[in-house]
């Protein structure tokens, strides 16, 4: 069972072929298992190759700042391939979150100093938001202009206090920071202004800043390294030069592009899980014939094929029109959940062992929905934004997701 090809430009096809060849050679399941055990949580040598030879973290960085200057669609294609390999890397937190936020809010000095280093892979970054509220902060599961996710008043979340000389001190904790344990630069969302001038701002915190404590967490999906970040009067630099910047708007815009990248990654992982399952049922025999020849198995595989192709189409569209990225992410998270669950079953007895490769994909599916979903909340917010539950002539009302 092959995979249909979406129409790609020559440049896009080259990105896909080159990246797939490199990951096939250097990021198989055994290499992935070794990489996640390293202190960084990824293969540093492979990351340098992806950065130096392919310019992966700089694909969507403008040429003005040393990047390749491609569109989001090219970076999404790369993410589809990294998803197929379940590549553990700082690509998504660095290029998918930090780079667009620095480009949108940073001063000219900050952009000139940080974006070229991101483009070359010499600087890894992570976005730290209070608690475990990344989908809310990025506007994927609700209106992020509401301050609940960031903490409010004079306590809760992460608090920022201005000090002399234009510097800031941060105090608080972020519970689940993607790549946060090894990132060399943290973008920290913090609340300031108390009740009178309540607002959320973004700050730059060096990885070696005094008062910064980072603990790598044990996660269901080890290919997505996560950390608890604690700040105790930690020195920080305001991202941008205006403490009245529209930070929720910038986060929502970055969240839309991030969701498109996540959707592409999930679609790639689902496609790889299906390909592995098809190969297995062609080889495994029962009653003297391959189990893939049984009509019941063929029907199940056909349903999975439709799931994967629908997910790929949604992800490909979202990379071009990010307005539907949240809905595409929901579609792709559901697809990988269904495909990986079926893959475990169709592998039979060996499929239920944690050591089997099928469980790497199964854990990715479960972990991603815990981190970026759940699916029903992504869909509920997308429906609310589209006004699907708004009667003609009446203002939109908030949609409360069940569960």
From TrEMBL:
Residue span(s) of domain Acyl-CoA dehydrogenase/oxidase N-terminal: 9-121
Sorted UniProt keywords: FAD, Flavoprotein, Oxidoreductase
SUPFAM superfamilies according to UniProt: Acyl-CoA dehydrogenase C-terminal domain-like (SSF47203), Acyl-CoA dehydrogenase NM domain-like (SSF56645)
Requisite cofactors: FAD
Assigned protein family: Belongs to the acyl-CoA dehydrogenase family.
Superkingdom of origin organism: Bacteria
Membrane-spanning intervals of the chain: none
Native source species: Streptomyces clavuligerus
GO terms, molecular function: acyl-CoA dehydrogenase activity; flavin adenine dinucleotide binding
InterPro entries reported for this sequence: Acyl-CoA_Oxase/DH_mid-dom_sf, AcylCo_DH-like_C, AcylCo_DH/oxidase_C, AcylCoA_DH/ox_N, AcylCoA_DH/ox_N_sf, AcylCoA_DH/oxidase_NM_dom_sf
Domain named Acyl-CoA dehydrogenase/oxidase C-terminal: residues: 260-385
Name of the protein: Putative acyl-CoA dehydrogenase
Gene3D superfamilies: Acyl-CoA dehydrogenase/oxidase, N-terminal domain, Butyryl-CoA Dehydrogenase, subunit A, domain 2, Butyryl-CoA Dehydrogenase, subunit A, domain 3
One Pfam assignment: Acyl-CoA_dh_1
Keyword presence, DNA damage: no
């Amino acid at each position: 069972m092959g995979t249909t090809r979406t129409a790609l430009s020559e440049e896009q096809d080259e990105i896909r072929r080159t990246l797939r060849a490199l990951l096939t050679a250097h990021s198989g399941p055994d290499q992935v298992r070794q990489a996640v055990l390293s202190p960084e949580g990824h293969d540093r040598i492979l990351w340098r190759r992806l950065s130096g030879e392919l310019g992966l973290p700089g694909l969507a960085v403008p040429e003005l700042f040393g990047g390749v200057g491609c569109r989001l669609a090219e970076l999404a294609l790369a993410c589809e391939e990294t998803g197929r390999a379940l590549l553990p890397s700082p690509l998504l937190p660095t290029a998918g979150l930090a780079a667009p936020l620095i480009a949108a809010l940073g001063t000219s000095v900050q952009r000139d100093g940080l974006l070229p280093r991101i483009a070359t892979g010499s600087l890894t970054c992570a976005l730290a938001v209070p608690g475990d509220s990344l989908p809310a902060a990025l506007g994927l599961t609700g209106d992020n202009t509401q301050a609940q996710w960031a903490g409010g008043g004079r306590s809760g979340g992460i608090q920022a206090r201005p000090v002399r000389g234009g510097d800031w001190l941060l105090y608080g904790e972020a519970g689940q920071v993607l790549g946060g344990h090894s990132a060399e630069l943290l973008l920290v969302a913090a609340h300031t202004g108390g009740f009178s001038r309540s607002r959320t701002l973004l700050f730059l915190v060096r990885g070696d800043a005094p008062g910064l404590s980072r603990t790598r967490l044990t996660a269901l999906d080890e290919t997505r390294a996560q950390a608890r970040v604690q700040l105790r009067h930690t020195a920080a630099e305001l991202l941008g030069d205006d403490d009245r910047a529209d930070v929720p708007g910038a986060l929502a815009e970055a969240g839309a592009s991030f969701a498109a990248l996540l959707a592409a990654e999930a679609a790639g992982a689902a496609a790889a899980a299906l390909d592995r399952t098809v190969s297995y049922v062609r080889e495994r025999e029962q009653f003297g014939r391959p189990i893939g020849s049984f009509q019941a198995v063929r029907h199940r595989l056909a349903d999975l094929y439709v799931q994967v192709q629908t997910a790929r189409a949604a992800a490909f569209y979202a990379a071009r029109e990010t307005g539907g990225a949240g809905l595409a992410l929901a579609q792709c998270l559901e697809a990988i959940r269904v495909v990986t669950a079926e893959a475990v079953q169709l592998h039979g007895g060996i499929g239920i062992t944690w050591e089997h490769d099928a469980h790497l994909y199964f854990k990715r599916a479960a972990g991603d929905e815990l981190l970026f979903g759940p699916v029903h909340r992504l869909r509920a917010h997308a429906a609310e934004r589209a006004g699907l539950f708004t009667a003609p002539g009446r203002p939109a009302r908030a949609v409360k997701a069940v569960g």
